[in-house]
């Protein structure tokens, strides 16, 4: 029988392990994406550049997350350095596909990511948050 602290460590690793990881599918590239569970939310975490060449990776992660039953989908763009129109389109599509049973929240902190969202007025459609913790908490 394992010791209590070994069980706690195993549970902690399982809770933070990604449910989906782009590196398992495409190898290393200009965009890495994982899907993680954080409380009742599914969190899609993107790192790198989102453009027409990398958007399919983000799209696959969003599709994976939306196929699961979750009341909340958080798209964390905190570590995204470039967001092209293909990425903006994916955010709108995710919002539309989520329907009324899943709330979609976007974490955007950098000016380079917030600016295209604001210019296209997507900040009036999407719920934008300054941190993952705030997005998960609501």
Could you explain how this protein is built, in words?
The model is unreliable at 1-15 (pLDDT under 50). With 138 residues, the chain is of the alpha/beta class. Helix 3 packs parallel to helix 4. 43% of the residues lie in helices and 29% in strands.
Major pleated sheet: 6 strands, mixed
For the record, give the distance between the C-alpha atoms at the N and C termini, rounded to a whole number.
40 Å
Query: How do the helices and strands follow one another from N- to C-terminus?
Result: HEHEEHEHEHEH
Q: Which blocks of ≥5 consecutive residues have pLDDT under 50?
A: 1-15
Structural class: alpha/beta
Overall body shape = globular
Number of helices: 6
Structural Rg: 15 Å
Counted beta strands: 6
Mean pLDDT: 86
User: Biggest sheet: strands side by side, in what order?
Assistant: 1-2-3-4-5-6
Beta-strand fraction estimate: 25-35%
Instruction: Bin the helical content.
Output: 40-55%
List its traits.
single chain; 138 residues; alpha/beta; 6-stranded mixed sheet; 6 helices; 6 strands; globular; disordered N terminus
Summarize the structure.
This protein has 138 residues and is an alpha/beta fold.
Give me the secondary-structure topology.
Layout: H1 4-16, E1 20-21, H2 23-26, E2 31-38, E3 41-50, H3 55-67, E4 72-83, H4 85-98, E5 103-107, H5 111-119, E6 127-129, H6 132-137
Parallel strand pairs: 3-4, 4-5, 5-6
Antiparallel strand pairs: 1-2, 2-3
Helix pairs in contact: 3-4
